[in-house]
Amino acid sequence: MLFQKIERRKWKIEKQENSKSGSWYERNKKWVIIVGRVVVTGVCIGICIYVGRKIRCEFAWRDSLISNQWDRIDGLEERCEIKDKLFSELMSDALRHRSSLAARHMADKKLYLKNVA
Question: What is the pLDDT of residues 31-85, one digit of tens each?
Fold first, then answer.
């Protein structure tokens, strides 16, 4: 019985010494490498998702900006047409009342239309 107790104590001491040999990293090297790879992979995937979303938002913002620019251009063209019609009416009315200023504007408009067309 005494001999068995001594053997058990020796076995416990050897087991403790074996577990203490080497650093923690060396004992768990396989798991450290696996966990490190998983962490690096997760970080890389997260960065890719973040950059992808930023790029998609940037393209969406540019597309909306371009469509807004076209809308603004269309609106400005409509306003120019309205202004031209009102100015033509004003010139014709002023010519009926013998305005020399209206005659000069009408002559300038005719020259402009000849050069454009």
Answer: 878 888 888 888 888 888 888 888 887 777 777 778 888 888 999 999 999 998 9
Total residue count of the chain as it appears in this document: 117
Which amino acid, one-letter code, is at 40? V
Three-class DSSP category at 38: helix
Residue tagged 């014709």 (tokens): 92
Helix axes 100-116, 29-96, angle to 10 degrees: 130
CB atoms inside a 10 Å sphere around CB 99: 15
21/52 Cα distance (integer angstroms): 47
Q: Is the dihedral of CA 79, 81, 82, 87 positive or negative?
A: positive
Confidence of residue 2 (pLDDT cuts 50, 70, 90): low
Residue 94: closest CA among 84, 104, 85: 104
CA dist 61 and 69 (Å) reads 12
Cα pseudo-dihedral 67, 72, 75, 77, rounded to 10: -100
